[in-house]
Amino acid sequence: MHSTLRIRRSQKRSTHPPRRTRRAAQATAAAVIAGALALAGCSSDNNKDGGDKASSSSGGKESGGTVTLPRLDGQNLEIAAVWTGGEQANFKKVLAEFEKRTGAKVTYVPAQDPVINFLGSKIAGGQPPDVALLPQPGAIKQAVDRGWAKPLGPEAQAELAKNYSQGWQDIGSVNGKRYGVYYKAANKSLVWYNAKVFEGAGAKEPKTWQELMTAAQAVYDSGVTPFSVGGADGWTLTDWFENVYLSQAGPKKYDQLAQHKIKWTDPSVKEALTTLAHIWGKKDYLAGGTKGALQTEFPASVTQTFTGGDQPKAAMVYEGDFAQVNIGETKAKIGTDAKVFPFPAVGGQAPVVTGGDAAVVLKDSKAAQALVTFLASPDAATIQAKLGGYLSPNKSVAMSAYPNAVQQTMAQALIAAGDNFRFDMSDQAPQAFGGTPGKGEWKDLQDFLRNPKDVAGTQAKLEADAAKAYGN
């Protein structure tokens, strides 16, 4: 069975605090994990012969590792990304390996979110970076539409074809042309759990929704509330819905609902809401009950799951790998006290929600094309994988490159998902419906959490708000 991936678009992240907070959480999580797991000398171990065997002439080729790179002695490059802290430091180690193997000098340019606005100002000033890391497919299309992005050269395309599934290749394409190399990804279909609670309850990691409910009942019978839900932040509820809907209704229906080609009164939406009510409708299954869930913001939903030893406020919390930074605020150790399993399949394909950062060429040169070719290779991704706090959609990266079982679980789910990519539904919607606190889908799902018996009423409100926002 193949899993289904949903790529999170983040064009609206900078326009409302919850989405921006989530992106910041992801970046901070990466920095925290990277700092904790840094492995010295990774770059040199991975490519022992890289620079030494290269020709010193400008026309020479470097053949260390899996990818052949040209000599670029004396050439200078700039690459822009929003990464900071440990995430930036680890990426600079990847760039250092590229410098060693080619003779080029690469400068990292810190960018601000939204990246498109940052790049626009740089381009207007006549100083665009050679390559930029763009955090969503929509940004790639914007860069292409504005004439900024340059198509990938044959070497980069060859690395893509060899190392990436068709879906990852396509998601970086516009009008059939390849523009983006997805260097980094995030897995956002994860359920984190308190290992001591599961052990005490005799609960097992579930693979299906029914097994999840069985585990929840075992936890409840042991005296611990099963779930922590950050309902005060409406975006967490849209993520719950989208995982269930994608798995249960399938990609075709998902696309139709995302584009409002079917109504929110469709029976498939009823089915997904009814499924959610299996959890949201049981007050005793929610930390603090319904009222408590609606008053709990996302960070607290995580920390309360891992505070209190074997008697926390809840045993499980759903969200992406960025939850690690909040777990880090507790005394729980990831991989020992705090463990994770993929979001269970809900009567269909198991969903894997992911985002990503794609390298795009802005100044078409031999050096820029060589850099994105390197980033498309397992050589580059393996270096950063070993440092921790990073996941790659590059299927040629060995799972053993990831430094612990938690990272390996996330990476394996990402790769096993295959080609079935889907964008985040709420981020595809007009902001008035899918991205505004206290309005549209966020508010309607909070109301549903408050009254999970009102499936029909919730559908009617969702459809009314969607029709208004979409203009149809």
From TrEMBL:
Record organism: Streptomyces colonosanans
Belongs to which family?
Answer: Belongs to the bacterial solute-binding protein 1 family.
Keywords from the named record: Transport
Write down a Pfam family by its short name. SBP_bac_1
Instruction: Give the highest taxon in the source lineage.
Output: Bacteria
Check the record and name the SUPFAM superfamilies matching this protein: Periplasmic binding protein-like II
Could you identify this protein by its name? Sugar ABC transporter substrate-binding protein
Report residue spans for region: Disordered.
1-26, 44-70
Q: Where is the composition biased (Basic residues)?
A: 1-23
